[in-house]
Structure formats: C-alpha cells, structure tokens
C-alpha cells in the first residue's frame, strides 16, 4: 500500500494517507483481473518497474475523483459573470489591441466536462463577450473522463444535476435517451489530457483558470508547485478560481484574493 500511495503522489500529486487504504483497495482490487495481476503486491511491483504507460494511467484514473455537476457551487460562475468578465473586458477595451479581443479560459481538472460547458454557457449568456474570440480548454489527468467530456454527451440523470431547463433547451439536443451539447456551444471548446505536475511549456497564456477542488488532495509543496505552474500560464492580472474549501493563504504564491468573492484570486506578480 505504501508503494502504491507513493506512486500516486509522484505521478499525480495526490496525497493518500494510510486512512485511505480502504479507498485504494476498493477501487483497484476489482480491476486486477483486467490487468492480469493476481494481487495488489504484484501491481505495486509492476508500477515500480513501469511507472509510465497504460497501466500507470489506469491506476491514476481509478484513484482520481471525477465528481462534478453543472454550475457546481454557483458562486464561481456568478463571479465569472459579475467580476471577472467585466474586468477583463474593461481592460480589453482600454488596450485597443487586437490580441485583447481574445479571451482564453482553462478549466483544469475538468472531469467529464460539465464545468467547461458551464463556463461556455456563462460566456454565451453574456452579451458583451459575443464580439470576442473565445477559447476554453478543459483538461484532466484521467483520459476516460476527458474522452467523455470531448463527446459532449450526457445522460438524463447527468443533465438533471444543476442544469436549468432553459439552458438544457437552448444548448442541448436530445439523442435517444441522452443529451448532446449543441455545436454552437462547442465552438472554441477543446479538451486535453494533462497532468498538473507536468504541464507542456507552450500551454496558455490564459485570462482565467478554474482549478477547483484539486488542491485539497495535495501536500503543501505540491500545492505551491501547481500554483506556480498555473501563474506562469496566466496573463498579467489574470484570475484563478479555486474551490470553496481551498485557499492560497499560507502558501508562497503570486495570487491575492479578490474582495467580496469566494475562491477567486488575481495574479499580482
């Protein structure tokens, strides 16, 4: 168990204490036969000798949490509409530069994509954004989750979790028992499998990054590493949106909290 916990931390930054052994066992043991391995001991041995590759990816995917829903927690999207976008657009107008007419947002750890499309709907609902060239990137370390997000196809149960009937009718079309994101909402949206501990050099720059409910799984040193990597890919004055239970307080980071918001930070250096 110690070897598996160490692998997951080194690979994905996720800190699992011994009290989480039950989680590791419940998620990995049922998959052993599919990996042609007789035990978790043999899995640990294989991961030591093959720390990358399909098996390593499968183990990380099995141990990551992909819980998500539409407009999760509400306040981040209200902050996007009422605080972040007005400031970005005001600076765009003041700059009078063609590059300032572009708006780039990254949803890190996007799971199956509901956050990405929630961001897209918020932008579509904001009239002042419609003359901008918008790009939204969704990424996750779990490749199957990214594939689901890219498909833009959701079950009846999934669309009932936080999605209003107005948004469902406007931005989705029914296909059998499922609902599919309409092409006009998908425009400018892309998905990639990315590891926050090993981001490509050419990623960004972005005007805002949503990285919610991720830092809670990291130790302090990994949190600082991830925050620095995100800051390096944000434009000056860009925004970072964290989960409600997350903060940059007590961490060496280039972010300052935005007054009267929850979980919204601005790059200050």
Description:
With 269 residues, the protein is an alpha/beta fold. It has 2 domains: 62 residues, Chemotaxis Receptor Methyltransferase Cher, domain 1, CATH 1.10.155; 193 residues, Vaccinia Virus protein VP39 (Rossmann fold, 3-Layer(aba) Sandwich). It is 40% helix and 19% strand. The protein contains 11 helices and 10 strands. β1, α6 and β2 form a beta-alpha-beta unit. The model has no long low-confidence stretch (mean pLDDT 91).
User: Gap between N and C termini, in Å?
Assistant: 40 Å
Report the CATH superfamily of the largest domain: Vaccinia Virus protein VP39
Class from helix and strand fractions:
alpha/beta
* Biggest sheet: strand arrangement: 6-2-1-7-8-10-9
Give the number of helices: 11
The CATH topology name of the largest domain reads Rossmann fold
Tally of extended strands? Answer: 10
Query: How many structurally independent domains?
Result: 2
**SSE series:** HHHHHEHEHEHHEEHEEHEEE
* CATH classification, class level of the largest domain: Alpha Beta
Helix content: 25-40%
* Overall 3D shape: globular
Portion in strands: 15-25%
**Low-pLDDT ranges:** none
Mean pLDDT: 91
- Sheet having the most strands: 7 strands, mixed
Brief summary of the model shown:
The protein is an alpha/beta fold and 269 residues long. It has eleven helices and ten strands.
Q: What features would you highlight for this structure?
A:
7-stranded mixed β-sheet, 2 domains, alpha/beta, Chemotaxis Receptor Methyltransferase Cher, domain 1, 11 helices, Rossmann fold, globular, 269 residues, 3-stranded antiparallel β-sheet
């Amino acid at each position: 168990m110690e070897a598996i916990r160490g692998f997951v931390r080194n690979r994905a930054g996720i800190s699992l204490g011994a009290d989480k052994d039950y989680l590791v066992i419940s998620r990995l043991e049922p998959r052993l036969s599919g990996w042609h391995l007789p035990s978790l001991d043999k899995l640990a041995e294989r991961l030591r000798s093959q720390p990358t590759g399909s098996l390593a990816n499968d183990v990380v995917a099995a141990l990551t949490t992909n819980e998500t829903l539409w407009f999760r927690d509400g306040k981040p999207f209200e902050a996007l509409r009422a605080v972040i976008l007005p400031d970005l657009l005001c600076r765009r107008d003041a700059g009078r530069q063609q590059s300032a007419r572009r708006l780039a947002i990254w949803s890190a750890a996007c799971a199956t994509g509901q956050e990405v499309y929630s961001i897209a709907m918020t932008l579509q609902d904001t009239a002042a954004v419609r003359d901008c060239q918008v790009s939204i990137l969704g990424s996750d370390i779990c490749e199957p989750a990214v594939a689901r997000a890219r498909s833009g196809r959701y079950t009846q149960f999934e669309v009932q979790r936080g999605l209003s009937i107005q948004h469902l009718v406007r931005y989705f079309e029914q296909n059998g028992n499922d609902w599919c994101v309409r092409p006009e909402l998908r425009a400018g949206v892309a998905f990639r499998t990315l590891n926050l501990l090993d981001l490509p050099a050419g990623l960004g720059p972005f005007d805002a990054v949503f990285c919610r409910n991720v830092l809670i799984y990291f130790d302090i040193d990994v949190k600082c590493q991830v925050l620095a990597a995100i800051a390096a890919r944000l434009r000056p004055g860009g925004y970072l949106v964290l989960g409600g239970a997350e903060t940059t307080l007590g961490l060496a980071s280039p972010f300052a909290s935005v007054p009267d918001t929850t979980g919204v930070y601005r790059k200050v250096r």
